[in-house]
Every structure is written in C-alpha cells, then in structure tokens.
Amino acid sequence: MLEIILLSITQGITEFLPISSSAHLILVSKFTNFNNENLTLDISLHLGSLIAVILFFISDILNFIQNKSLFLKIILGSLPAMIVGYLLVRFNIVDFFRNTYVIGITTILFGILLYFSDKSKTNKKISSDLTIKRCLYIGLLQALAFIPGVSRSGITITAARFLKFDRIESTKISFLLSIPILSATSFYGFLKIIEAKNLEITTQNFWAMFLSFVFSFITLKFFIKFLKKFTLTFFMIYRVILGIIIFF
Question: b/e string for 117-136 if b means 16 or more Cβ within 10 A?
Fold first, then answer.
C-alpha cells in the first residue's frame, strides 16, 4: 500500500507541473525498488489525473459544445503526440530513453528552456489567438514529452510562452491538451489489458486512481494560484538541482 500512496502522490503532483511525471515515477520506482510495471496500476494513476483535469475544466469542456473551434484545435494539437507515441510503442523505442542519464540531461536542458520562455512578452489570449497553426506547433513540441525528463506540461507551457501567451493562458492550454493525451494513454492501456486477457482490478487500483485524482486536483488548483503571483523560475531551479542530483 505504501507503494500505491507514493506513486499516486508522485503522479498527482508531477503530471501537471512542468517537472515531468514520467521521470519522477521512474526515479521513485528505481530508488525505492518499487515495481511500477503493473499495467492496471499505471492506467489507474493516469485515470485519476484524467478525471481531475476534466472536473477542473468542466465548464470549458461543456463549452466545447458551443465552441467547436476550440475543441477541434485541442484535438489537432494532440495528434502529433498520439502519432509519435504510437510509433515509439510500436517499434519498442520507448525503453531506450528510460535511463537516469537521459532523464538528468532533459531535466536540466528543458528546465533552462522553460526559464527563457518565461521571459517572453505576452499579448495573446486563447479566445482570440489560439489558431490551428499555433496548436499544431505546441502539439509537435508536446511529442517530445515521451522522453522522460522533458515534461509534457513543461514543454507545452514553454511552447505557449514562446508564442506570447501569458503564464495562466499557457497553463490552461497545457491542461486542455492533457485531456486527449491522458484519454489516449488510458484507452491504449485498456486495449493491452484486454489483449493480455488480464482484467483483474483490485482494491489497490481504486486507491491508486482515487489518490491520484485527489493530488492531481489539488495540484491543478494551487498551480494556477501560484502562477498568478510568481514566475516559473522556481521550476527551472528545481529541475536543474534535480538533474545534478541524478548524475550523482
């Protein structure tokens, strides 16, 4: 149960912060000797985060019915990452990046990139300036997040900041783009479970999903509040320190 709690906290806190949830889950599993190879557990963790972001943005999602243009942009912006993810899994390339050396480099490199993007002047709004072209640009960079340490939320916020969206708008774009990605990840996981004929769902899976949901929702709420008062510099410093620690 300790493993479930720790992995759920890690998933919930790091999924939406620009610090890479996959890197932290790999590192937590590695340095605590936890085994995070349970497919149903992995799906439960992602489902918790998915439910949290859907509830957090429920009004925006309901508005998709009236704002079909935004819905289309979010879907199109998610396609590059979905295609790249499928190809990486299809050709068994994912595990090539799952080592501490790669995580250390990407954690530092993309943390510094996040810092410089946060210096951009802002004059863009989602309602008027989020074009299909800009969504595809952010989506293409989002595909890099399959490399542990890059951070899906980190790279999408970075891309949006370079496109001159402010911190709050950039974060909302990142959160909205996470919905199709988390949905696709969960759906793919379900297909693998069905393929393996392993439909066993335990109490631990429900706890993993619930705890991941709770910590994801709390993170979503307080991250937005944090950005209203502070810059992203804190996350750059955290990533650089973490990257240095990883190398040692």
Answer: bbebeeebebeeebeeebbe
Q: Are 76 and 136 in contact (CB under 8 A)?
A: yes
**What would the pLDDT profile of 159-199 be if each residue is shown by its tens digit?**
999 999 999 999 999 999 999 999 988 887 777 767 666 65
Q: How far apart are CA 119 and CA 18, in angstroms?
A: 16
Kindly tell me the burial class for residue 100, based on how many C-beta atoms sit within 10 Å of its own C-beta (0-12, 13-18, 19 or more). Answer: middle
End-to-end CA distance of the chain: 29
Number of folded domains in the chain? 1
User: pTM score > 0.85 for this model?
Assistant: yes
Distance (Å, rounded) from C-alpha 237 to C-alpha 25?
20
Domain of residue 183 covers 2-247
